[in-house]
Write a structure and sequence with these properties.
Elements lengths: L13 H19 L6 H30 L5 H25 L6
Helix pairs in contact: 1-3, 2-3
């Protein structure tokens, strides 16, 4: 038997939980969104948007730092990039919810 071999079992990661939670939130917003968003709803979305934008910037810095390292961990780099893409999608969705629809 060889030592040092890892099990290839798939276990849920923190990123998977984030994806499930954000998908559930997106669905909830889609079904509960109305033309007249309350000020409280808008403030909550803006607060979440600010938090997500900061996290996106932090991930960008972490990815750059990992690229600069002599031997970057490619798996970690891939996970950070995936997380950054999820954040970008969530940010775009929230910005779309905050921006009023203009009927031309």
């Amino acid at each position: 038997m060889r030592e040092g071999r890892r099990s290839l079992a798939i276990t849920p990661r923190k990123d998977d939980n984030f994806h499930r939670a954000s998908t559930a939130l997106i669905s909830a917003y889609r079904f509960s969104a109305t033309a007249n968003m309350t000020n409280e709803d808008e403030r909550e979305l803006e607060a979440e948007l600010t938090r997500l934008q900061q996290e996106h910037r932090d991930l960008d810095a972490a990815i750059d730092a990992l690229h600069q390292s002599p031997a970057p961990d490619l798996l970690r780099l891939q996970r950070l990039k995936k997380r950054k893409l999820l954040l970008r999608d969530r940010i775009a969705f929230i910005e779309d919810q905050i921006t009023p629809d203009i009927i031309a």
